[in-house]
Amino acid sequence: MADPVDYDPYAYAIHEDPYPVYARLREEAPAWRNEKLGFWALSRHADVLAAFKDPSRYSSRHGVSVDPDAFSEKASANMSFLAMDPPRHTRMRALVSRGFTPRRVSELEPRIREIARQHLAGFAEAGRCEFIAEFAGRLPMDVISELVGVPEADRPELRRLADLVVHREEGVSGLPPATIESAMKLVQYFRGHLGERRRQPRDDLTGALLEAEIDGDRLSENEIISFLFLMIIAGNETTTKLLANMLYWLWRNPDQRKLVDDDPGLIPRWVEETLRYDNSSQAIARLLMEDVELHGEALRAGEKVVLLIGSANRDERVFARADRFDILRDTTASLSFGQGNHFCLGASLARLEGRVALEELWPAIRAFEVDVEGLERVHSVNVRGFAAFPISFQTGPR
After folding, report:
1. Span 4-364+371-390: which CATH code?
2. Nearest CA-CA partner of 337 in 48, 4, 39, 55
3. Which residue among 85, 117, 347, 361 has the highest number of C-beta atoms inside a 10 angstrom radius?
4. pLDDT band at 1; cut points 50, 70, 90
5. What is the value of pTM for the model shown?
6. Which residues of 63-97 are buried (b: 16+ CB within 10 A; e: fewer)?
Protein backbone atom coordinates (compact mmCIF):
# COMPACT_ATOMS: atom_id res chain seq x y z
CA MET A 1 0.00 0.00 0.00
CA ALA A 2 1.28 3.46 -0.88
CA ASP A 3 2.39 5.83 1.84
CA PRO A 4 -0.06 8.71 2.44
CA VAL A 5 2.55 11.24 1.35
CA ASP A 6 2.27 9.74 -2.13
CA TYR A 7 -1.30 10.99 -2.48
CA ASP A 8 -1.57 12.97 -5.70
CA PRO A 9 -5.01 13.63 -7.22
CA TYR A 10 -3.60 13.33 -10.73
CA ALA A 11 -2.43 9.81 -9.99
CA TYR A 12 -4.85 8.36 -7.47
CA ALA A 13 -8.23 9.99 -7.90
CA ILE A 14 -8.28 9.31 -11.62
CA HIS A 15 -5.83 6.71 -12.93
CA GLU A 16 -5.57 4.22 -10.07
CA ASP A 17 -7.70 2.87 -7.23
CA PRO A 18 -7.63 5.75 -4.71
CA TYR A 19 -9.55 4.08 -1.90
CA PRO A 20 -6.75 2.26 -0.01
CA VAL A 21 -4.80 5.52 0.06
CA TYR A 22 -7.87 7.40 1.27
CA ALA A 23 -8.23 4.87 4.11
CA ARG A 24 -4.69 5.55 5.31
CA LEU A 25 -5.20 9.28 5.05
CA ARG A 26 -8.35 9.06 7.19
CA GLU A 27 -6.54 7.13 9.91
CA GLU A 28 -2.99 8.50 9.79
CA ALA A 29 -3.17 11.97 8.24
CA PRO A 30 -6.77 13.31 8.15
CA ALA A 31 -5.41 16.81 7.53
CA TRP A 32 -2.50 16.22 5.15
CA ARG A 33 -0.34 18.69 3.26
CA ASN A 34 0.72 18.11 -0.35
CA GLU A 35 3.78 20.33 -0.54
CA LYS A 36 4.39 19.76 -4.23
CA LEU A 37 0.94 20.90 -5.37
CA GLY A 38 0.30 23.27 -2.47
CA PHE A 39 -2.91 22.11 -0.81
CA TRP A 40 -4.30 20.52 2.33
CA ALA A 41 -6.40 17.35 1.90
CA LEU A 42 -9.30 16.62 4.25
CA SER A 43 -10.37 12.98 4.09
CA ARG A 44 -12.83 12.31 6.94
CA HIS A 45 -16.58 12.63 6.47
CA ALA A 46 -17.03 14.98 9.44
CA ASP A 47 -14.36 17.40 8.17
CA VAL A 48 -15.59 17.41 4.58
CA LEU A 49 -19.18 17.93 5.71
CA ALA A 50 -18.18 20.77 8.04
CA ALA A 51 -16.30 22.49 5.22
CA PHE A 52 -19.27 22.19 2.87
CA LYS A 53 -21.49 23.84 5.48
CA ASP A 54 -19.09 26.69 6.29
CA PRO A 55 -18.69 28.86 3.15
CA SER A 56 -17.47 31.83 5.18
CA ARG A 57 -14.39 29.83 6.20
CA TYR A 58 -14.05 27.54 3.18
CA SER A 59 -14.59 29.85 0.22
CA SER A 60 -15.52 28.91 -3.35
CA ARG A 61 -14.39 32.20 -4.89
CA HIS A 62 -11.41 30.57 -6.63
CA GLY A 63 -13.55 27.78 -8.04
CA VAL A 64 -13.47 24.07 -7.25
CA SER A 65 -10.68 22.64 -9.40
CA VAL A 66 -7.70 20.78 -7.99
CA ASP A 67 -5.75 22.05 -11.02
CA PRO A 68 -3.43 24.85 -9.82
CA ASP A 69 -3.90 26.72 -13.10
CA ALA A 70 -7.69 26.66 -12.70
CA PHE A 71 -7.81 27.76 -9.07
CA SER A 72 -8.28 31.53 -9.12
CA GLU A 73 -11.10 34.02 -9.57
CA LYS A 74 -10.03 34.70 -13.16
CA ALA A 75 -9.52 31.06 -14.16
CA SER A 76 -12.88 29.96 -12.68
CA ALA A 77 -14.93 32.64 -14.47
CA ASN A 78 -16.87 30.04 -16.51
CA MET A 79 -17.85 28.00 -13.47
CA SER A 80 -20.90 30.12 -12.72
CA PHE A 81 -22.06 30.04 -9.08
CA LEU A 82 -19.68 27.16 -8.31
CA ALA A 83 -17.07 29.91 -7.98
CA MET A 84 -19.10 32.26 -5.79
CA ASP A 85 -19.76 32.86 -2.10
CA PRO A 86 -22.82 34.49 -0.53
CA PRO A 87 -24.31 36.96 -1.22
CA ARG A 88 -23.28 36.70 -4.92
CA HIS A 89 -23.91 32.96 -4.87
CA THR A 90 -27.29 33.39 -3.20
CA ARG A 91 -28.44 35.89 -5.84
CA MET A 92 -27.14 33.86 -8.80
CA ARG A 93 -28.58 30.58 -7.57
CA ALA A 94 -31.96 32.15 -6.85
CA LEU A 95 -32.18 33.60 -10.37
CA VAL A 96 -31.02 30.40 -12.07
CA SER A 97 -33.51 28.40 -9.99
CA ARG A 98 -36.32 30.45 -11.53
CA GLY A 99 -35.58 28.68 -14.81
CA PHE A 100 -34.07 25.39 -13.65
CA THR A 101 -37.09 24.31 -11.63
CA PRO A 102 -37.96 20.87 -10.20
CA ARG A 103 -41.01 20.87 -12.45
CA ARG A 104 -38.91 21.49 -15.57
CA VAL A 105 -36.64 18.58 -14.56
CA SER A 106 -39.47 16.17 -13.76
CA GLU A 107 -41.20 16.95 -17.04
CA LEU A 108 -38.10 15.64 -18.84
CA GLU A 109 -38.73 12.03 -17.80
CA PRO A 110 -40.75 10.93 -20.86
CA ARG A 111 -38.20 12.54 -23.20
CA ILE A 112 -35.25 10.95 -21.32
CA ARG A 113 -36.94 7.58 -21.68
CA GLU A 114 -37.49 8.18 -25.40
CA ILE A 115 -33.85 9.21 -25.93
CA ALA A 116 -32.63 6.14 -24.02
CA ARG A 117 -34.74 3.86 -26.20
CA GLN A 118 -33.45 5.51 -29.37
CA HIS A 119 -29.83 4.94 -28.43
CA LEU A 120 -30.56 1.44 -27.15
CA ALA A 121 -32.15 0.49 -30.47
CA GLY A 122 -28.83 1.14 -32.19
CA PHE A 123 -27.10 -1.82 -30.50
CA ALA A 124 -29.73 -3.90 -28.67
CA GLU A 125 -29.73 -6.68 -31.28
CA ALA A 126 -25.95 -6.78 -31.71
CA GLY A 127 -25.21 -8.35 -28.35
CA ARG A 128 -22.34 -5.97 -27.67
CA CYS A 129 -21.57 -2.26 -27.62
CA GLU A 130 -19.02 0.34 -26.60
CA PHE A 131 -21.17 1.60 -23.77
CA ILE A 132 -19.65 5.11 -23.49
CA ALA A 133 -19.64 5.88 -27.20
CA GLU A 134 -23.04 4.35 -27.96
CA PHE A 135 -25.07 5.12 -24.85
CA ALA A 136 -23.60 6.66 -21.68
CA GLY A 137 -21.76 9.44 -23.51
CA ARG A 138 -24.70 10.31 -25.75
CA LEU A 139 -27.70 10.25 -23.41
CA PRO A 140 -26.60 12.98 -20.95
CA MET A 141 -25.50 15.31 -23.76
CA ASP A 142 -28.85 14.84 -25.48
CA VAL A 143 -30.76 15.49 -22.25
CA ILE A 144 -28.82 18.66 -21.41
CA SER A 145 -29.10 19.80 -25.02
CA GLU A 146 -32.85 19.26 -25.05
CA LEU A 147 -33.09 21.18 -21.81
CA VAL A 148 -31.20 24.25 -23.04
CA GLY A 149 -32.29 24.04 -26.68
CA VAL A 150 -29.10 22.90 -28.46
CA PRO A 151 -29.87 21.53 -31.96
CA GLU A 152 -29.18 17.84 -32.51
CA ALA A 153 -26.63 18.55 -35.24
CA ASP A 154 -24.45 20.54 -32.81
CA ARG A 155 -24.33 17.97 -30.02
CA PRO A 156 -21.40 15.75 -31.16
CA GLU A 157 -19.12 18.78 -31.41
CA LEU A 158 -20.24 20.09 -28.03
CA ARG A 159 -19.51 16.72 -26.48
CA ARG A 160 -16.06 16.67 -28.09
CA LEU A 161 -15.29 20.11 -26.68
CA ALA A 162 -16.67 19.18 -23.25
CA ASP A 163 -14.44 16.08 -23.17
CA LEU A 164 -11.39 18.20 -24.01
CA VAL A 165 -12.18 20.68 -21.24
CA VAL A 166 -11.81 17.96 -18.58
CA HIS A 167 -9.10 15.89 -20.30
CA ARG A 168 -5.56 15.89 -18.90
CA GLU A 169 -2.56 13.99 -20.18
CA GLU A 170 -1.25 11.53 -17.62
CA GLY A 171 1.56 12.96 -15.53
CA VAL A 172 0.96 16.53 -16.72
CA SER A 173 -0.59 19.07 -14.35
CA GLY A 174 -2.05 22.42 -15.27
CA LEU A 175 -4.35 23.48 -18.09
CA PRO A 176 -3.25 22.21 -21.52
CA PRO A 177 -3.80 24.44 -24.57
CA ALA A 178 -6.57 22.15 -25.88
CA THR A 179 -8.54 22.71 -22.68
CA ILE A 180 -8.30 26.48 -22.91
CA GLU A 181 -9.15 26.50 -26.62
CA SER A 182 -12.15 24.18 -26.11
CA ALA A 183 -13.47 26.30 -23.24
CA MET A 184 -13.26 29.42 -25.39
CA LYS A 185 -15.10 27.69 -28.24
CA LEU A 186 -17.87 26.61 -25.89
CA VAL A 187 -18.25 30.17 -24.60
CA GLN A 188 -18.41 31.46 -28.17
CA TYR A 189 -21.00 28.83 -29.06
CA PHE A 190 -23.26 29.74 -26.17
CA ARG A 191 -22.91 33.44 -26.89
CA GLY A 192 -24.27 32.76 -30.37
CA HIS A 193 -26.91 30.43 -28.95
CA LEU A 194 -28.08 33.14 -26.58
CA GLY A 195 -28.31 35.66 -29.39
CA GLU A 196 -30.37 33.24 -31.44
CA ARG A 197 -32.72 32.63 -28.53
CA ARG A 198 -33.22 36.37 -28.09
CA ARG A 199 -34.21 36.62 -31.77
CA GLN A 200 -36.40 33.54 -31.64
CA PRO A 201 -37.68 32.88 -28.10
CA ARG A 202 -38.48 29.27 -27.18
CA ASP A 203 -39.81 27.48 -24.13
CA ASP A 204 -36.52 25.96 -23.00
CA LEU A 205 -34.09 26.60 -20.14
CA THR A 206 -32.18 29.23 -22.11
CA GLY A 207 -35.38 31.17 -22.68
CA ALA A 208 -36.34 30.78 -19.03
CA LEU A 209 -32.96 32.14 -17.91
CA LEU A 210 -33.41 35.17 -20.17
CA GLU A 211 -36.78 35.83 -18.51
CA ALA A 212 -35.73 35.05 -14.91
CA GLU A 213 -36.27 38.05 -12.65
CA ILE A 214 -36.42 38.79 -8.93
CA ASP A 215 -37.50 42.33 -7.99
CA GLY A 216 -36.20 43.70 -11.27
CA ASP A 217 -32.87 41.86 -11.06
CA ARG A 218 -31.97 39.74 -14.09
CA LEU A 219 -29.08 37.54 -15.12
CA SER A 220 -26.48 39.19 -17.33
CA GLU A 221 -25.46 37.64 -20.65
CA ASN A 222 -22.15 36.46 -19.18
CA GLU A 223 -23.93 34.92 -16.17
CA ILE A 224 -26.25 32.92 -18.43
CA ILE A 225 -23.37 31.80 -20.64
CA SER A 226 -21.33 30.68 -17.63
CA PHE A 227 -24.29 28.67 -16.36
CA LEU A 228 -24.85 27.00 -19.75
CA PHE A 229 -21.11 26.23 -19.88
CA LEU A 230 -21.35 24.62 -16.45
CA MET A 231 -24.40 22.58 -17.50
CA ILE A 232 -22.70 21.19 -20.59
CA ILE A 233 -19.55 20.24 -18.66
CA ALA A 234 -20.80 19.11 -15.27
CA GLY A 235 -24.18 17.81 -16.41
CA ASN A 236 -22.69 15.78 -19.23
CA GLU A 237 -19.44 14.37 -17.85
CA THR A 238 -20.56 13.35 -14.38
CA THR A 239 -23.69 11.51 -15.54
CA THR A 240 -21.78 9.73 -18.31
CA LYS A 241 -19.35 8.40 -15.71
CA LEU A 242 -22.18 7.50 -13.29
CA LEU A 243 -23.87 5.27 -15.87
CA ALA A 244 -20.71 3.27 -16.62
CA ASN A 245 -19.75 3.07 -12.94
CA MET A 246 -23.18 1.62 -12.19
CA LEU A 247 -22.66 -1.25 -14.63
CA TYR A 248 -19.07 -1.82 -13.59
CA TRP A 249 -19.71 -2.21 -9.88
CA LEU A 250 -22.80 -4.36 -10.34
CA TRP A 251 -20.74 -6.59 -12.64
CA ARG A 252 -18.00 -6.77 -9.98
CA ASN A 253 -20.56 -7.76 -7.30
CA PRO A 254 -22.68 -10.72 -8.48
CA ASP A 255 -24.70 -10.83 -5.25
CA GLN A 256 -25.88 -7.25 -5.84
CA ARG A 257 -26.54 -8.02 -9.48
CA LYS A 258 -28.87 -10.83 -8.46
CA LEU A 259 -30.79 -8.40 -6.27
CA VAL A 260 -31.47 -6.13 -9.25
CA ASP A 261 -32.25 -9.11 -11.51
CA ASP A 262 -34.82 -10.28 -8.98
CA ASP A 263 -36.22 -6.80 -8.34
CA PRO A 264 -35.59 -4.02 -10.92
CA GLY A 265 -37.40 -1.72 -8.50
CA LEU A 266 -34.04 -1.49 -6.72
CA ILE A 267 -32.56 0.56 -9.57
CA PRO A 268 -32.89 3.88 -7.66
CA ARG A 269 -30.96 2.36 -4.75
CA TRP A 270 -28.37 1.06 -7.20
CA VAL A 271 -27.96 4.65 -8.42
CA GLU A 272 -27.50 5.99 -4.89
CA GLU A 273 -24.98 3.35 -3.80
CA THR A 274 -22.90 3.89 -6.93
CA LEU A 275 -22.84 7.61 -6.20
CA ARG A 276 -21.53 6.86 -2.72
CA TYR A 277 -19.20 4.00 -3.58
CA ASP A 278 -17.38 5.42 -6.62
CA ASN A 279 -18.55 8.92 -7.39
CA SER A 280 -17.37 10.67 -10.54
CA SER A 281 -16.41 13.77 -8.52
CA GLN A 282 -13.70 12.60 -6.12
CA ALA A 283 -12.33 15.92 -4.90
CA ILE A 284 -13.35 19.56 -4.77
CA ALA A 285 -11.28 22.57 -3.75
CA ARG A 286 -11.88 25.47 -1.39
CA LEU A 287 -9.91 28.58 -0.39
CA LEU A 288 -9.35 28.87 3.37
CA MET A 289 -10.38 32.32 4.63
CA GLU A 290 -9.05 32.10 8.19
CA ASP A 291 -6.58 30.07 10.21
CA VAL A 292 -7.87 26.66 11.29
CA GLU A 293 -6.34 23.90 13.42
CA LEU A 294 -7.39 20.39 12.48
CA HIS A 295 -6.00 17.12 13.82
CA GLY A 296 -2.96 18.88 15.21
CA GLU A 297 -2.16 20.69 11.95
CA ALA A 298 -2.20 24.47 11.44
CA LEU A 299 -3.98 25.44 8.22
CA ARG A 300 -3.48 29.09 7.30
CA ALA A 301 -5.78 31.63 5.68
CA GLY A 302 -5.16 31.85 1.94
CA GLU A 303 -4.24 28.17 1.57
CA LYS A 304 -6.01 25.72 -0.72
CA VAL A 305 -8.02 22.91 0.87
CA VAL A 306 -9.11 19.86 -1.13
CA LEU A 307 -12.20 18.06 0.16
CA LEU A 308 -11.86 14.36 -0.64
CA ILE A 309 -15.49 13.41 -1.28
CA GLY A 310 -14.49 9.93 -2.44
CA SER A 311 -12.78 9.33 0.89
CA ALA A 312 -15.59 10.82 2.99
CA ASN A 313 -18.07 8.46 1.33
CA ARG A 314 -15.97 5.47 2.45
CA ASP A 315 -15.55 6.62 6.07
CA GLU A 316 -16.35 3.72 8.41
CA ARG A 317 -17.35 6.22 11.09
CA VAL A 318 -20.46 6.91 9.00
CA PHE A 319 -20.94 3.90 6.71
CA ALA A 320 -20.62 0.42 8.16
CA ARG A 321 -18.51 -1.86 5.95
CA ALA A 322 -17.97 1.19 3.76
CA ASP A 323 -15.80 -0.67 1.22
CA ARG A 324 -18.62 -3.09 0.45
CA PHE A 325 -20.87 -2.28 -2.51
CA ASP A 326 -24.34 -2.71 -1.00
CA ILE A 327 -27.38 -1.31 -2.81
CA LEU A 328 -29.59 -1.93 0.24
CA ARG A 329 -27.59 0.35 2.55
CA ASP A 330 -28.73 3.75 3.84
CA THR A 331 -26.88 6.33 1.72
CA THR A 332 -28.51 9.48 3.09
CA ALA A 333 -25.20 10.68 4.56
CA SER A 334 -23.46 10.52 1.16
CA LEU A 335 -21.65 13.71 0.17
CA SER A 336 -21.57 13.04 -3.57
CA PHE A 337 -23.66 16.11 -4.37
CA GLY A 338 -22.14 18.25 -1.62
CA GLN A 339 -24.02 19.87 1.23
CA GLY A 340 -25.00 23.34 2.33
CA ASN A 341 -25.52 26.27 -0.03
CA HIS A 342 -23.47 24.60 -2.78
CA PHE A 343 -25.55 21.41 -2.84
CA CYS A 344 -25.59 20.38 -6.50
CA LEU A 345 -28.46 22.07 -8.34
CA GLY A 346 -28.46 19.24 -10.89
CA ALA A 347 -28.70 16.39 -8.37
CA SER A 348 -32.33 15.59 -9.17
CA LEU A 349 -31.60 15.56 -12.91
CA ALA A 350 -28.60 13.24 -12.47
CA ARG A 351 -30.67 10.85 -10.36
CA LEU A 352 -33.53 10.96 -12.87
CA GLU A 353 -31.22 10.23 -15.81
CA GLY A 354 -29.53 7.38 -13.97
CA ARG A 355 -32.82 5.77 -12.98
CA VAL A 356 -34.58 6.13 -16.33
CA ALA A 357 -31.54 5.08 -18.37
CA LEU A 358 -31.11 1.86 -16.38
CA GLU A 359 -34.85 1.12 -16.33
CA GLU A 360 -34.72 1.10 -20.14
CA LEU A 361 -31.34 -0.58 -20.47
CA TRP A 362 -31.63 -3.32 -17.88
CA PRO A 363 -34.25 -5.50 -19.64
CA ALA A 364 -32.20 -5.43 -22.85
CA ILE A 365 -28.71 -6.40 -21.63
CA ARG A 366 -29.33 -9.76 -20.01
CA ALA A 367 -26.23 -11.45 -18.55
CA PHE A 368 -23.94 -8.63 -19.61
CA GLU A 369 -20.17 -8.98 -19.31
CA VAL A 370 -17.46 -6.31 -19.31
CA ASP A 371 -14.53 -6.59 -21.72
CA VAL A 372 -11.79 -5.84 -19.20
CA GLU A 373 -9.08 -5.57 -21.86
CA GLY A 374 -10.98 -2.76 -23.53
CA LEU A 375 -11.56 -0.65 -20.41
CA GLU A 376 -9.99 2.79 -20.43
CA ARG A 377 -10.25 5.41 -17.69
CA VAL A 378 -10.67 9.07 -18.46
CA HIS A 379 -7.60 11.25 -17.92
CA SER A 380 -8.90 14.08 -15.77
CA VAL A 381 -8.18 15.55 -12.38
CA ASN A 382 -11.85 16.52 -11.90
CA VAL A 383 -13.75 13.44 -13.05
CA ARG A 384 -13.27 9.74 -12.23
CA GLY A 385 -14.74 7.21 -14.61
CA PHE A 386 -14.38 5.38 -17.90
CA ALA A 387 -13.53 6.77 -21.32
CA ALA A 388 -14.10 3.36 -22.95
CA PHE A 389 -16.36 0.63 -21.57
CA PRO A 390 -17.05 -2.28 -23.98
CA ILE A 391 -19.67 -4.82 -22.93
CA SER A 392 -21.30 -7.91 -24.38
CA PHE A 393 -24.70 -9.26 -23.43
CA GLN A 394 -27.47 -11.67 -24.32
CA THR A 395 -30.54 -10.36 -26.09
CA GLY A 396 -34.14 -11.25 -25.49
CA PRO A 397 -36.29 -11.32 -22.34
CA ARG A 398 -34.78 -12.21 -18.97
Report:
1. 1.10.630.10
2. 48
3. 361
4. very low
5. 0.91
6. bbbbbbebbeeebbebbbbbbbbeeebebbbebbe
